[in-house]
Amino acid sequence: TGAISSLQRQLEIQESQLRRTRSEKETLQKWLREREHQLEAMSTKFCSLREERKHEEMMATMEKEIHSLQQVVAEQESKLAEQNKVISELQETVRQLQAEVLTSRCHLREQQRAHEATQSQAETLQHKELQTRVALECITSRFERYRSKIIQATFSAAGIKPPQAELTDEEVLEAMQKIINERMEFHQILKQKGIK
């Protein structure tokens, strides 16, 4: 946004300079037209006085003035050419600045869209994270209840000492395996004796 503002200020300065240069060009062209009219008038006057010998000094002065005016006209035409060149350069600069402003605006819009997309993704991820946390808490709670029931069922069997401290999963598994093995041995004994 700062770059766009800076480019727009440069563009306004260049456009102002371009308008000023064009105004100077118009003034210069008007002055040249006036000088051309003066030259034409003096040339006409010079032709009418040419035949009269008594105006020889005036004719010489007029010739000098005409020569001087021609030099001034040549100088002004040179200045006008320079002004035209400056105007062309300013127009090119204005076009470049306009293109830069347009490019900067496009970049800004792209960055805004990318930011909005990133923000939307972040919100989606936060929502999924919350859902995952809730699901994890639910699973953890169910697991703890299930584990508690297993421990209760395992250590409520006859001949099993109740635990004095918190059990690890391996200890619970060993206790269950022991009960299963004992039941299998008991089943084998009954089977050997023919008892169903």
What's the quick description here?
The chain is mainly alpha-helical. Helices cover 88% and strands 0% of the residues. The chain has helices at residues 2-50, 56-155, 169-192.
Keywords summarizing the entry:
rod-shaped; CC-FHA_domain; mainly alpha; 196 residues; 88% helix; 2 domains
Fold and architecture overview:
InterPro entries: CC-FHA_domain (IPR052642). By secondary structure, the chain is mostly helical. The protein has two domains: 9-124; 125-193. 88% of the residues lie in helices and 0% in strands. The protein has three helices and no strands. The protein has helices spanning 2-50, 56-155, 169-192. The radius of gyration is 52 Å and the shape is rod-shaped.
Which helices and strands, and how do they pair?
Blueprint (H helix, E strand, L loop, with lengths): L1 H49 L5 H100 L13 H24 L4
Please report which band the strand proportion falls in: under 5%, 5-15%, 15-25%, 25-35%, 35-45% or over 45%: under 5%
The separation of the N and C termini measures 90 Å
Fraction in helix: over 70%
Query: Count the helices. How many?
Result: 3
